[in-house]
C-alpha cells in the first residue's frame, strides 16, 4: 500500500509501522482520530511519507519515536500541512526530513526545517563523515583549504575554497565556516553550500543526493526574525513545507525576495541570485530559469529546506505563522494587462544547437503613478557572483526601476559588472511601449554606435568585452528616448552566403526607398570594425522596393561579417543587421604540456585557432577558479607559458579555455 492512509480510531491509541506498507512508505498520512484517547504512535520500522502529513482535526496527538521520515525525491518533497489550532495536535519525537538535490555541481542556499540540540553541519548534511564508498544517495563532501588529515575541523578533503559558507552582513560577503564539527545546523538561517553529489562522488563527476536533518519541527507562529536597517539578511524557510511569500508578516523590510537559483549563473553555471519582485498581488521572477519558469512567471513559493535573502529598509522583523504554509505550487506565465515594460536581458548568444543563455536581467516598469526618483517602489540590485546588470542610481543600483512614462531625452543608465573577455548579446524586449512619436535607442559609448529598439518587441545586439578599459566600463551602455524620424528606406532582410568558388554573395531587400543617395556593402573580420567593400546606387528612389546583390571576390577562409549602410540625401545614415559567413573549417586544438605540470610552469599550445584574446580559467575539483588570465593568440600555431603561483595545490584540475567567439574547450590537467 502506497496510497492515502487515514487514521480514524476513536477513544483508543493507534499504532503505525513502516513494515505495514510496501517499501515502508505511503503517499499521504491523514490523522483523523477523535475521542478522549486519540494518540497515533509510529513503532517498529521507519515509515516514509512521500507526499504529505495532514491533520484533519485539532484532537490528534502524534508520537513519532524518531521513526517518521518526510521523504524527498526528483518528483516530490513531503510536507506537513497546516496544523489546526486547539488543545490537541501534540507532536512528540523527532522527524527525519529530507531535501533532494538534482544531479549537478552547483551552489545551493539551504536551511534546516528541524531543531535539535547538538545537530551540526557534519553530523547532518555530511552524514557524520560516513564512508564515502558505501553511503549511496545521501550527504555531500565538504572541502576547505584548512583540511587536515586528522580531520579536526570536520571537512572531508582539501579545496582551494570552502564549500560551506554563511552570509556576513557587515562585509556583504559569504565567509567559509571554520569548523563543520561544531557549527550548529540551526546557527544560521541558511548556508551557501557547494554540492557536487553524494559522499561517493569525485571530480569532475556529479550525481543526485539528499540532505537530511533530524529533530522536532517548527509549528505555529514563530518568534520574529530581526532584519537590520539597510542590510541584507538570510531567512530560512522554517517549516517542513513550502511557504507562500505573499502571506508572512514583515515590518521595516522591503518586499523583494532574493533566491539562489542553481539553474542559472554565468559562464560556469554554478548558480546565481534570481530576484522575485512584487507585481500586483504576486511575485514574479526577474530571470527565466528551469526552476522559476519563463521571465515574469508567478513565483510565490519557497520550498522546504531552502533559504532566501531580504533587505531591511527602516529595519524590523519577519514573522512566520502556521497559515503561511502553501498547499499547492503554482508556476504560470504572468502577463498583466497593458504593462509598459522595458527588459534588458544580458545573454550568452546561441551557438549551434545550443540556445542563448540569459545571465542576468534588469527591468523598467513605466506608469503615470510612478516617480523618476529612486524610492521604495524600486527594487535594489543584489550583485551576482558572475556577470551582473542593473540600472545605475545616485545612491544605489536597482534591478527594477519603476518610473513615470518616458519623455524625450529621458536616459536609462545600464550598469554592467563582473564581465569576462568574451562575446555577449543584449536582448532588449519592450512591451506596449509604442508611444506615438517616441523612439528608444541603445547607445554603446565604447563603439560609438546607436541601435534602434523595437518599441513593441525584441531587439538583439551582439558585443564583445575586450581587455580595454572602455570595453568593460560599467557605464558602457545606456538607453535614450528621442523623437522619431522617418527613415529613408526599410531594409527588410540581408543575407550572405559562400559560393562554391569561395566568393561571398551578399543580398539585401528594401522597401519604401525614398531620397536615398546610395548603399555601401561593408565587411569585417571581427564583426566590429567594418570597411566599405563596394557601393550601389538606388534603383527605385521614389518609394519603391528592390532586391540588391553584390559579390565579394575575396576568398578569405576565416569568418566574415557583412552589413549594409544606407546614406540619404539629407546626410542621415542607417545600418542593416550584421550577418556572418562562417569560415572554412580547419583542424584546431588547444593542449597543455607537459601534463602532469612540473614546477608550476604550464605551457598552453594553440594549433590552427583564430586570432584574438583567449581566456584561461583553472578550476579545482570544487568548481572554484584558482587561476585566471587572458592571452593574445595569433593565427597559426603558438605556445603560451603560464606560471602558476605556489598557492595552487597539487592535484587534478580542469583548464577551461574560452575563445574570442565564445567557444569553450576543456583540458584536464594534473599539477604536481
Helices and strands, with pairings:
Elements: E1 4-7, E2 14-17, E3 25-31, E4 39-43, E5 47-55, E6 61-63, E7 68-70, E8 79-80, E9 91-92, E10 95-101, E11 106-110, E12 114-115, H1 121-124, E13 164-168, E14 173-176, E15 191-195, E16 209-217, E17 225-227, E18 232-236, E19 243-244, E20 249-253, E21 257-261, E22 272-279, E23 282-285, E24 297-299, E25 301-302, E26 307-319, E27 331-333, E28 340-348, E29 357-366, E30 379-380, E31 388-391, E32 398-403, E33 411-417, E34 423-431, E35 438-444, E36 449-452, E37 458-464, H2 469-472, E38 477-483, E39 490-498, E40 504-514, E41 516-524, E42 531-536, E43 542-552, E44 560-568, E45 573-575, E46 579-581, E47 589-593, E48 601-609, E49 612-619, E50 625-633, E51 636-643, E52 651-658, E53 664-671
Task: Note down, in words, how this protein is organized.
This protein is mainly β. Helix content is 1%, strand content 47%. The strands form twelve sheets. Strands 1, 3, 5, 7, 8, 10, 12 and 16 form an eight-stranded mixed beta sheet that branches. Strand 52 and strand 53 form a beta hairpin.
Structural class: mainly beta
Determine Rg (CA atoms, Å). Answer: 30 Å
Low-confidence segments, ≥5 residues, pLDDT <50? 329-337
* Shape designation: globular
Q: Report the strand count.
A: 53
Strand content: over 45%
Summarize the main sheet. Answer: 8 strands, mixed
Mean pLDDT: 87
Q: What helical percentage do the residues reach?
A: under 10%
Q: In whole angstroms, how far apart are the ends?
A: 56 Å
**DSSP helix count?**
2
